[in-house]
Amino acid sequence: MSVSSFLENDIFMSYAHLDNETLTEDEKGWVSAFDNALQKRVSQLIGRKADIWRDRKLHGNDIFGDEIVDQFPKLKVFVSIVSPRYLKSEWCLKELKEFHKVANKTGGVRLGNKSRIFKVIKTPVPPDEYPAEISRVLGYEFFYADEKGRFREFVLEKGSPTYYQFIERFEDVAQDICQLIKALDERPEPPKESGKETAAVDKEKIVYLANTTSDLNPARDNIRRDLEMRSYTVLPDQELPTDARFRKTVEDYLGHSSLAIHLIGDKYGLIPEDEQLSVVELQHELSRTASLQRLIWMPKFDMSNEDHRQQHFITDLRDNAVADTNTELLSGNLEDLKTVIVDTLEKQSSLGDHSPPVIEETAIVRIYLMFDKLDRETVSLIDDYLYDQEFEVLRPIFEGQELDIRQVHQDNLKLCDGVFIYCNQASESWLNFKMSDVRKAPGYRNGKPLKAAAIYLCGDPNRFKKDFRTREVSAVIKQFGTFSKADLAPFIKTLRGDESVIK
């Protein structure tokens, strides 16, 4: 017998009636608009008319009715429309507590990594004011806040500047509710007084998608939705605590995950109690020590921020944090990132041995000539000269699918004997990204180090080029005048051996 045989009602919406009042007679109440849209969209998604109900009659001074509580043992999903009034309403809080109590006896409050209580936040309230029943439940925020702390609620009204933001967030709610209802409909009936969900999930199907700052929350929601549609479990599946429990909670989540994804934006983010680092940077530090594969994404290479903490964090990411082969530092558009995520997860599930293939030794000496798309024209002089010296010159590609571009880059690092990084118009951030690849190269090569690596700085003699220095390559060549073959001689001799003849 399935759960649906005794959980007959799909959704109950709990809300404060004050939140459905309008400022003018022509408007439709926020809750009414949300309810109407949810009725239609969930019905479309589950393929039948959804049973969604809410109390439309009661007012703030009414007495709590047993007729509502009596329906809770038959209920699948409870939706709380959270607002300042909701948290002050004795009626609303009693509905929430009663459902939470009953749900523990009818399959549990959680099904897998999903809560049967949906926290729809219409108006922001301080997190420490949430009742225990929803304090850790992931919320769906129907508002945005500006830098001054002012907020704007999303409104389902054509012409409103927040209309499309409402639709995007609403779709997340509708699809998540639909998935939960379907899972409950297909789930066998649990024994009486059922406790917590104990079904195991393969670690390869669990992803830690780190909490990020408000500017990248829409991107994070997009990735989460895409992964869950592909049947991956996404953690954290509850709100992260902001007190001393933060580190232990994140470590536990990371311990169950096969991949960690970090989105880094312009903002530094909130700092938990008794910590010095932000939520974003703390998660990064914890995943770095967790020995699992990581993808770190920034929307663009060059991110300027007046907050010195964020500047320091990003500099650390570029220079130090990606030195291990388990980490990839990515930039670009969101769809490319999603492609890399799926490709990484598919490789994890299909490959038992993640070590790179053994490369056959040949008489050919290969140089991977790294350069930015901006420098394709000016690099040709270096390219021709290296080829004339009887080297095989490997080059990056710039057109095609993101996965193909990435694969060629990694194959070149595996095959080459040396790396030559050419930087003319490319930015300082681009150079730092390439340096991180040089650090990771032995990991792609079964531990085999590069014979030689060089950086060639030319073009505009700006400050970063003049000041640049490193001990991690064989040579740093600064040539802001005319190309000279003699500049490359130390690199070539190191690659071939001291007896080599430069042509």
Note down, in words, how this protein is organized.
By secondary structure, this protein is α/β, with parallel strands linked by helices. The chain has three domains: 1-197, 3-Layer(aba) Sandwich (Rossmann fold), CATH 3.40.50.10140; 200-354, Rossmann fold (3-Layer(aba) Sandwich); 366-496, Response regulator (Rossmann fold). Helices cover 38% and strands 17% of the residues. It is built from 16 helices and 19 strands. It has a five-stranded parallel beta sheet with strand order 2-1-3-6-7, with helices on both faces. The protein has a five-stranded parallel beta sheet with strand order 11-10-12-13-14, with helices on both faces. A five-stranded parallel beta sheet has the order 16-15-17-18-19, sandwiched between helices. The longest helix is centred in the middle third of the chain and has 24 residues, at 163-186. The chain is elongated. The N and C termini lie far apart (82 Å).
Put the structure in a nutshell.
The protein has 503 residues and is α/β, with parallel strands linked by helices.
CATH architecture of the largest domain: 3-Layer(aba) Sandwich
Mean of the pLDDT scores? 84
Helix content: 25-40%
Low-confidence stretches: 59-64, 191-200, 353-357, 499-503
**Number of strand elements:** 19
Strand order of the largest sheet: 2-1-3-6-7
Superfamily (CATH H level) name of the largest domain: Toll/interleukin-1 receptor homology (TIR) domain
- In percent, how much strand structure appears in the residues? 15-25%
Instruction: Report the structural category.
Output: alpha/beta
